[in-house]
Structure formats: structure tokens, C-alpha cells
Amino acid sequence: MELTYLVIAILICVGLYAIASKRNLLKIVIGINILESAVIFLFVFSSYRPGGTVPIISGNHELFVDPVPQALALTAIVIGASTTALMLGLVIELYKRYDTLNITEIRKMRG
Amino acid sequence: MASPIWLIILPLITAFGLGIVKIFSKKLLKPFLALSATIHLILVIDVVIRAFEEPMIYSLGGWDRLFAINLVIDPLAAIMALLISVISYLVVIYSLSFIKEDKSKYRVPKYFLLLFLLIAGMLGMVLTGDLFNLYVFFEIAAITSYALVLIYKRDGSLEGTFKYLLAGTLSGVFILVAILLVYLSTGTLNMARIAVKFAEVPGQLKSIILILFLTGFGIKFALVPLHTWMPDVYPEAPAPYNAISSGVGIKASLYAFIRVIYVLFGFDFIANTELTSLLVVWGVITFMVAHLMAYQQKNLKRLFAFSSIAQVGYIIIAVSLATDKGLIAGGFHIVNHALMKGAIFLALGIFIYYFKAETIEDIKGLGRSLPLTSFTFTLAALAMIGLPPFNGFLSKWLIIEAALESGYTVAAFFIPVGSLLSLVYYLRVLQSLYSSGEPKPRVDFKRPRLSLELPAVILGFSCLLLGIFPRLPLDMLGQISHYLLDSSNYINLLLGG
Is-contact B81 B127, C-beta < 8 A? Predict the structure, then answer.
């Protein structure tokens, strides 16, 4: 239980580290994706109940996993996918203009 | 008698109906957009008038209020919806002439698709009574904003937008985690039910949630030091987007933050913690830093971006006081800033459209070439500084009064200092506008198109009108604190006692 939270915390730190310190645009995008995945992981994990079944009431089961965070996680995945698509499109465009993916060099070229 | 959900659905239908209309006839595109925007404005006015008689609740899908996603239209939401739709309407009309086709013939439909989605997102943000729904609309508004900045694909816009995307995604993650924590500690996403159960949440967890919300929304409404995306993004974006973003886009996030701290955390939390003094100091820092940065700018859109950040500082001070007067003053400044910045950016758009004037040097001599536009620009700039008899003066005065009443003398002292600083750089702009120069217009220029000039003029003169006749907006704003300062009123409204 605690171990899973630790994994999530490590994933969030890895994502933030990549965003803050990497100079390559693609690595920054990957960092954002890791961060988002960690949050989605947190959503799914927080709805988990040991021994629970799918939240479809059929009469036999008493314990269900919480369906709300799962629904939220789905929405978050969709939003994450669209931002990633937009970002990658932007990265392609930046590469076409400046012929490099290094953010420092792009800034330098812009002056 | 339109139901409130149409305020959100109509822009969505318009956005996705554009493609179909374009297949039938390209000439129909613009009348279709104008018609839809007009119907939307009428619907909003109708709903707002009814909401002021009695606050409205609309449960999506006819579910019980406890389970459904609700639209809650209390006075503050109604004022924000009205403001958003008025500014959006003028911006849509303006954009119909402003946005020109590119070679591929797709720019106009693309632009309007994104613009209408942005409008739907902002309206959803202010109307919703469900926390996760708020997040969804927040992201709709955010993603369309990133794409709108890129519509011209100018060199400078790429790197700025990447920064914006990065900041925006981080803010989304912060808000998402905050919402998850709220859900885990209360077991619901309905704002009123959260408010009921939130009192039992331990204080430490409350503080963590508050910090997450503050940074999340703070990135979007450009709280110093989270503001850095804004000055990089604005210079490259099309002027109508600047108007809608500065005027109402950042205000929607601000509204969401106000709603969260007042309804979720409640008046007791604000009164018992140091939240007010923290936010007041932060507000002062925000507007002082922004004013000082604005003073150094040569690019006009960058300058106005910093000026927008400064106004957010004033609003934060006013609304965080948690008094009746503070909320009215803050609300009035939100309305006024939307009108002033709308007028300024739309007038600046005309300068750019006909003269490609982007820096302070470029606008020299335009006072004579574009007399009416320049006059509008001047009116709005004087209102921004906060000179009487304009609306900016009134709202800043009310903020000072509210701050003094709550005992924040230092903050109240800094507000006129900030105004003095803005006087310096706005006068520099105005001086350049009316000094002699040889502007080089585009070849076909005689006088600006009416559809470009009229929206700017309407907004500019409304600054003067609201300054002289402030009774009506202040009466409307007088009702907002009832549902904010005492969250039990909001709970009773939504859950029915």
C-alpha cells in the first residue's frame, strides 16, 4: 500500500525533474506525460478496494471499487492525449523552423 | 424561455457545425457565425435577467440534484456569464473582418471553431456547480487557447506557446490532484455537498488543497511569479484573442478560484487563517512587479500583458478581503478591466491591421490617421490608469476603501502608487500616439472598416458610461456576496434546504 504511493511519488518527481532540467523538447514532453500518468495512476489506485469487484450491481457482490475516480481518470487521459498531440505538433513545427530540438539554442536563435 | 444549458451547447454546435456549413457554401459561413453569436447573446441576456429575479439551478439529464452535474446561476455566475458573452460577441463580430484567409483556405473556419469552443469552455467554467466539470471546461478553454495563439504560426509564437503549454499542463495537473484530494476526503464532487462535508476535513489537508488550487489557477490568471507565460504569448497572438483572453479568459480562472475559496473553504476558513493577509501581500507584489515590468516594455502587446497582470493583483486584493465591500469592488474591477482591456486590444488590433504597428515607436502619428480608434484607445487607457470620471477610477477607489476598512493600510497606500506607475507608461504610449510621424498604411487604406471599429468604440465608450452611471452594475454586484460570504446560502440554493 505505502509502496504504491512511493512509486507514484517517485514518478511525479521524475516527471517534474524532466520538465525542469531537460533541454530537449521531446524529453520535456515525455516528462509531462510521466507526470500525467502518475496522477492518473493516483486516481485509479485511490479508487481500489481490496477484494472489490467492478461497479455493476448484480446482487451477489457487496464490495465495489469506487467508479468515480476511474471515470475521472478516463477524462484526464483524454485531455492528456490532446495536449500531448498539440505539443508534439508544436515540436515538429519548431524543429522545421530552427532545425534543432534544444530549447536553449532555439531561444538563442530568436535573440 | 431557454434553459441555461443552451448557453454552453449553442457555441459547441456552432463550432462543430462550421464544417458542414462550409461544405454547402463558403459565403454562408460569416452570416452563420454572426447569427449564432447574436442568438447566443440574446439567450444569455434572457437567462441572466431571470437569474437575477431568482437564482437558477439546472440539473443535466434530469437527474436528482444530489447526483447530477448542476449548472448553478447565482448573481456572480450571471454577471460573469453576461460579461463573457458581451465581450465574446464583440470579439466574434470583430474577428469576422480581422482574420484573413491563408493560402489553404482553412484559417477562418479553424479560427472560429477554436473561438467558439473557447467561449463554450469559459461559460461552462462560470456556470457549473460541479468540481470535475469545472476542470473539464477549464481544460477545454486552455487547449483552445494554445491553438488560437498559434493561428498565424509566426516564428515568435512557437516558443512562447510551448512555454504556455508547459505552464498550462502543470496548472491542469495541480488542479486535478487538488480535485482528487477533495473527492477522497469528502466523497463527492458536487460543490454544495463538498461545502457541507469540508468542515470535517483536517486542517493540514485543507492547506495542501488550497495551495494546489492557488498554484493551479494562479498560473492561469497570471499571479506573479507564475505569470511568465503571458508576456511571451500575447505579442504573437491575434489581437481579438488577446482581447478575449485578457478580458474574460483569465477572469474565468479567477472566478473559479473565488468560487473554490468561498464556497468550498467557506468564510470561516478565510477568517480563521492568514489567507487574507497572504493574498493581500501577494496582490500588492503582483501589481507592483507587473507595473515595473510594463514600464520597460517597447512592444505594446507585451506592455498590456503586464498591465493585465497588474489588474489581477488589484482584484486579488479586493476579493481576498472577505468583506461585502471587497467582493463588490473586486467584481466591479473584473467587469471594468474586461471592458477596458477589450477596448485597448481591439483598438490595437486596428493599428496592427492597417499599419502593422506593434511597438511604441510604430504608433507615432496614428492619432491623426485613425482619429476615432485613437480616441477609443485613449478613453480606455485613461480608464486603465484610473482617472476620474472613468470606471477604472471608481473600482480602484472602492478597492482602496474596502482595504482601509479591513485595516490593510499599507496595501491601500500602494494602490495609488501603482496607479502612478501605470500613469507613467500609459502616458508614454499616448504621447507617442499623438506625436507627429509618418505612418505607412497598407495600400487599400481609406478609413477603418465599421465592423472593426464599432466593437472597439462600444467597449471604449462603455468605460466612460460605467464611470458616470455606476448605479446599475453596482446594484447587480451588490447581490453577489449573499451566496459567497455565507456558503450555507449556496448550499441551500443547490440542495434545496
Answer: yes
Residue A50 distance to chain B (closest CA, Å): 16
Residue B454 to residue B461: CA distance in whole angstroms: 10
Full set of structural domains in chain A with CATH: 2-49+64-110 (1.10.287.3510)
Which tens digit of pLDDT belongs to each residue from B120-148? 999 999 999 889 899 999 999 999 999 99
The backbone torsions φ and ψ at residue B233, rounded to the nearest 5 degrees and listed phi first, read -85, -40
The whole-model pTM stands at 0.94
Residue A64 β-bridge partners: A53
Residues forming beta bridges with residue B73, ordered by sequence position: B56
Contact A36 B169 (CB under 8 A): yes
| Residue B236: its H or E element | none
Complex ipTM value: 0.92
The Cα of B180 is separated from the nearest Cα of chain A by a number of Å equal to 7
Task: Assess B158–A contact: CB distance below 8 Å, yes or no.
Answer: yes
Helix (H) or strand (E) holding B436: none
Q: State the 10-residue block means of pLDDT for chain B, 497 residues long.
A: 84 90 85 92 92 86 82 90 94 90 80 93 92 92 91 81 91 92 89 86 89 92 87 89 92 92 84 86 92 89 92 92 89 92 92 87 84 91 88 91 90 90 90 82 76 90 89 86 82 76
DSSP structural state of residue A24: B
C-alpha distances in angstroms, B106 versus B172, B278, B378? 30, 48, 35
Contact check, Cβ <8 Å, A68/B189: yes
Of B293, B184, B284, B273, the closest CA to residue B232 belongs to B293
